[in-house]
Design brief:
Blueprint lengths: L38 H15 L14 E10 L4 E13 H14 L15 E13 L12 E8 L2 E7 L1 H7 L3 H11 L8 H5 L2 E13 H11 L2
Antiparallel strand pairs: 1-2, 1-3, 3-6, 4-5, 4-6
Length: 228
């Protein structure tokens, strides 16, 4: 996913943008292997977006759990799921408030795209990614393509930079570990020559993403079944 934006909430934190979040990441490994992400979270994002686009009252709080998680909301459009916005946060935030906030922020405040319009609504797909199982990497290679998302920290001219890719990015792009790291360095703002020493000095955090996706058609069918 060619995605996201946030960083301490409103700065960009995305798969193809630099991330500037707080240093503290709340570890939610205590949930073990329990599945948290549910399609209802995506339906709620559609509720939020629909209400916003039509100037309606915001939807009521949903029934799914309200535990705090780092999360991303991604909007895509059309048959080939072209990216329309993706923003999230590494700070653990309650799911109800977090999805309300980032469903809107990713739809309207991703600076790479024009805001989503009513005319696009019926063509949209939405994904919710809950970030879990954060672990410090021993070095820049201590992660697996297609399994782990990675967040890197590095310094250039005394200034700290960070950047992240969600787990699906490297495999979707066909990148190996070094290509992914080098791309992240550039997206994080590194301007110099990328050398083995530069890579070795990266601080890497790996994590996993629990992701669920639905289309607008899925959302409409959900509403119909809910009203039966």
């Amino acid at each position: 996913m060619n995605s996201s934006g946030c960083a301490s909430k409103k700065q960009k934190l995305n798969n193809f943008t630099s991330v500037l979040c707080n240093d503290s990441i709340i570890n939610n490994n205590q949930y073990g292997n329990k599945i948290i992400a549910k399609p209802e979270m995506c339906f709620f994002c559609f509720d939020v977006l629909y209400s916003y686009l039509h100037n309606l009252e915001p939807p009521k709080s949903p029934d799914f759990c309200n535990d705090p998680f780092p999360l991303f909301v991604t909007w895509e459009i059309g048959k080939y799921k072209r990216l329309r916005g993706c923003i999230g946060t590494f700070n653990a935030i309650s799911l109800h408030n977090g999805l309300r906030e980032y469903a809107v922020t990713s739809a309207f405040n991703d600076s790479r795209f024009c805001p989503i319009t009513i005319d696009e609504l019926s063509k949209l797909h939405v994904s919710v990614s809950l970030l879990r199982h954060f672990e410090d990497g021993a070095d820049y290679r201590d992660w697996d393509v297609g399994i782990h998302g990675i967040r890197i920290e590095f310094y250039e001219k005394g200034n700290k930079h960070t950047a992240t890719y969600l787990p699906e990015v490297a495999s979707d792009q066909g990148w190996d570990q070094i290509q992914t790291i080098d791309s992240l360095l550039r997206k994080g703002g590194f301007k110099g020559l990328v050398t083995p020493d530069i890579r070795q000095n990266i601080r890497l955090t790996r994590y996993r993403s629990e992701k669920v996706s639905v289309s607008y058609e899925d959302y409409i069918n959900y509403l119909k079944n809910s009203n039966c």
